Amino acid sequence: MTDKVESPLTPAKPEEIRVTFRQLLEKTNKDHPRPQDVAALADLLNGNQGLQLWRDVFSAAQYAQRAVIENSSSVAGVKECWKYRLSSLRQELGYNEAPVLEKLLIQDAALSWLKLSLVELQYSHTMKQSITLTLGIFWEKRLSAAQRRFTRACETLARVRKLSRNTPALQFNIATSGGQQVNVAK
């Protein structure tokens, strides 16, 4: 058993640790942060692994979803509704109860759905106008690519779910008199 040594940067209470974490995160989330701030953040994360402080920060997938929504040409109110729709879609796909791998695939499927929906929207607006053949081909290819990504994400999620739910039964091989073998599955 090792003794945990507290540094001056590591307060004893979880609330204080989280405050220190947010302060260090603010100091390090910029171009060219001070090396001692980065080291202090690393020490804080390492010394308080049980608190899982890193969960307080958006994941790359969450940043991607936010970027897709924010970079769309829609108005602010619609963008807010999309955030809730995306969250609802993840829940409908069973995100909360899913194992880690499925959670990653659910996030991917939801993001692919959002991107497909936005491309469909742009495609519809573009096709209402008189456009060049080159522009028409561009949008057809972009829409087809978004549809393929979404379909692949859904198929992968379904495949992983089927494989994880279809665990093989425990099988016993029992030798009977006369040398015959009987397989019993439980």
Structure description:
The chain has 186 residues and is mainly α. The chain folds into 2 domains: 14-56, no CATH class; 60-165, no CATH class. Helix content is 63%, strand content 5%. It has 6 helices and 2 strands; from the N terminus they run ααααααββ. Strands 1-2 form a two-stranded antiparallel ribbon. Helix 1 runs antiparallel to helix 2 and helix 3 (60-70) runs parallel beside helix 5. The two termini are 41 Å apart. The relative contact order is 0.07. The model is unreliable at 1-6 (pLDDT under 50).
Radius of gyration: 25 Å
**Helicity, as a percent range:** 55-70%
The N- and C-terminal alpha carbons lie at a distance of 41 Å
Strand order of the largest sheet: 1-2
Instruction: Indicate the low-confidence ranges by residue numbers.
Output: 1-6
Record field, number of beta strands: 2
- Compute the number of helices: 6
Shape: flat
- How many structural domains can be distinguished in the coordinates? 2
Structural class per helix/strand content? mainly alpha
**Strand fraction band?**
5-15%
Please write the string of helix (H) and strand (E) elements. HHHHHHEE
Give the rounded overall mean pLDDT: 85
Largest sheet: 2 strands, antiparallel
